[in-house]
Amino acid sequence: MNVFDYFGLLINDYTIRTISMGTVIMGIVCGILGSFAVLRRQSLLGDAVSHASLPGIAIAFLITGSKEPLVLFIGAALSGLIGTLWIMGIASKTHLKPDTALGIILSVFFGFGMLLLTLIQKMPNANQAGLDKFLFGQAATLIVKDVYLLAAAGGISVAIVIIFHKEFKILSFDPQYAKTLGFNITLLDIVLTSLIVIAIVIGLQTVGVVLMSAMLLAPAAAARQWTNRLGTMIILSALFGAFSGLAGTAVSASMSNLSTGPVIVLIASVLVLLSFLFAPDRGLIIRLFRHWKNRNFLKNEFSAN
Fold it and tell me: What number of CA atoms fall less than 13 Å from residue 227's CA on the CB side?
């Protein structure tokens, strides 16, 4: 099957349509919330949260014995949120810097999660198979029920962003000014961070723990090169995320033995590279061309005089 056949199957094939819908929703939500993570310089937070969610998945399975996506997502969200709060607490209550706190939580939670997964795989229970797919993602396991769950969680997150757009905007650019206006910046910070955790969690089944931080940040990093306006950046980031999800699914479905998650991340990375090179104001190639043009203009002016 080639890429053109994929678009025909997108309408007629249940599996392709389901996976594509799931990856597009994931890309849109990650693009929107990743914009705030990039602007707030919380790039490493996505990596820490995605790794911190692993023990939550394992514990949710151990408690319930179920691999229902909703159960595992709740476990992952709670674990990721606890890890995030610990990071914030370590950074504010100790002399350690935030990057050190991120490294500690990432390592401890991920190591604990791997230990739990190893124990689960040795259990005499056939239902435990497949939990390891959350490490690298397995989009092919998505079913319609999973897509509905992604759409519901993503829709709620996007709705909250729309409602509190002004508050999140001022929090991202000038939290101290927001505090002087009477906003509860601690509460806003927790809400926005929780939404970022949700965005990471809903992408775990598709992209996986290891690559999820790249999916959160790449569309936003690409969009940032094209505009200085937050609203435009969010829209572009959502479009880049959706395109990465759709194109990654198409390439993965068109070629055998290609995992969907890594392909999606690679396409998002290509968008970042192209944006770094060709964005109108910040693109490296465009700036070099502008510099060359200005130098030639000055050279001709001096020659004429």
Answer: 12
Map tokens 């104001």 to a residue: 281
Nearest to 197 by CA among 302, 31, 45, 69: 45
pLDDT digits (tens, 9 = 90+) for 230-255: 889 999 999 999 999 998 888 888 77
- pLDDT bin (cut points 50, 70, 90) of residue 95 is confident
* 246 Cβ contact partners less than 8 Å away, ≥ 6 residues apart: 20, 23, 24, 27
Give the chain's length: 305
Of the candidates 153, 12, 159, 7, the one whose C-alpha atom is nearest the C-alpha of residue 80 is 153
DSSP letter (8 states) at residue 164: T
Architecture of domain 3-304: Orthogonal Bundle (1.10)
- How distant, in Å, are the alpha carbons of 1, 59, 259, 260, 286 from that of 8? 11, 41, 21, 19, 37
Q: Which region among 140-144, 149-153, 155-159, 237-241 has the lowest average model confidence (pLDDT)?
A: 140-144
pTM tops 0.90: no
Q: Name the more confident of 227 and 122.
A: 227
Of 200, 203, 202, the C-alpha closest to 264 is 203
C-alpha span between 183 and 124 (Å, rounded): 53
157 pLDDT above the threshold of 60: yes
Which residue matches tokens 């992952």?
76
- CA 280, CA 277: separation in Å to the nearest integer? 9
Q: Which positions ≥6 away from 260 have C-beta within 8 Å? A: 19, 23, 137, 138, 139, 140, 206, 248, 249, 252, 253
